[in-house]
Structure formats: structure tokens, C-alpha cells
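Subject — a protein and its fold
Fields — amino acid sequence, C-alpha cells
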Amino acid sequence: MLEFQARKGLLLPPDLSRSAVAVLVGGGIESSILTAQLMDRFQAVYPVYVRFGLVWELVEEQHLRRFLAAIRGPHLGRLHILDLPVADTYGDHWSITGDSVPDSSTADDAVYLPGRNLLLISRTAVWCALNGIETIALGPLDSNPFPDATDNFFDKLESVIAAALDQRLRIIRPFARLAKAQVLQLGRDLPLEFSFSCINPTYDSEKAALHCGRCNKCHERQQAFDESGVVDRTRYASRERLAVPAL
């Protein structure tokens, strides 16, 4: 079991206004737990979900709504949906077609969605500017390997947003020093069975959506629960894990 270190708590700038924050939610473990954590630290928390038109989003959004209903509190605003279809940009990418979805035998970079953070934040930044919200929060981890999850990327994006909108908008990543298992420990008392991480959802005989249990993201989820010692109440269609090839 991974021991959580108290010194690796949420990463929040000391000069950050605690009035309102828009949190980019995707239904997964990190954004679900982040939303709950921010409710204790901001006067108003506004979850924002950006629909790209990806194959798992219908199921993901359903789970997200259940999770938000379960943690409802006085500081949590209503879910706001922004539609940003990417099919004309992504073309025949697996996230659009559902073909050859990366399974648990693939490397983590197989699930890269080109420009995802750029698209998510730029659209949300405009919405925030129009609604008087000065901070956007999202949940990339310490281990995130993608080019749009680096300190350099976020610093430069903040500058571009300030120039474009003529106002400062802070982008915060409170989990940037944490591993997934550590984040799970922060949210161990939350209804995490309502979170959704699967990129290839399936259905049971009663048409209820399940995690497939075999895709790259399901494998990552299961591994994090194992390492954290937190009970995994997720419903998986399969618990079989494919062997990861040796390097």
C-alpha cells in the first residue's frame, strides 16, 4: 500500500483568490476528487464539462452527474456544458471511431488526445472571462507524460489568455505533485464508484454502463486502487488484465 505523505498536499498558490473557481471535470478519479477538495477551499466551485464528441462521453457525463449529485453542497455550482466537437479535426482517431482502443498492454502515451488541454482551457477561459471567474482548476498528475501538461505549457498559456482577454486568469493544478494512488487516498470517503475512467465502455444485460476492465484507462484505475489500499467499488465487465510487454 502506498503511504500518503502529508507534505504532498494540494498545490495552491498562496496569493490565489478563494472566491470562485471553474474546475474542468471529465468524470474520472482526479477531476471528481478535485471538485470535492475545492469545495472546502473556495466560496464557489463551478464544474465545467467540455463535450468533444468522443465515444465514451455519454456514459462519462451520466456518471459525472451522479457523482456531483452525491457530493452536492452549498459551495458547488451547477454543471456547465460546453460543446466543442472535434470529429472534423481528429478524423479517424480511435477516440472518435471507437476502433482499436488502447488496451492495458499499451504504453500510456497511446491514450494521448492531441491538444486536449489547449482546447479544454481556451474554451473554458472565454466562459470564465464572461462570467467573472478568475481561476481554472484541472487535475493532471505528477506522472502526466504529455506535452500539454508541463509547467512551461501552462505558464505560456496563462500569458496568451491574459493577452487575448485583457485580464489575468489563473490556471491551477492542485494534484501536480501527486500520483494517482495518492489522489485516491485524498478521496477515499467519496462515492468514487460514480466516477468513470473507461475509454471503451460496455453494457450489462440490463443496459447499465460498465467499465470494460481491459482498456488502458481501466488498467490504470485498477492499479491505482491496488496501490492506494482504497476499496474499489467500480463495476467492471472484466477483471482480466492483459500482459504489458517488456521494454
Observations:
- The longest strand covers residues 44-51.
- Residues 20-89+114-192 form a domain with the Rossmann fold fold (CATH 3.40.50.620).
- The chain has a mean pLDDT of 91.
- Residues 5 and 182 are 8 Å apart (CA to CA).
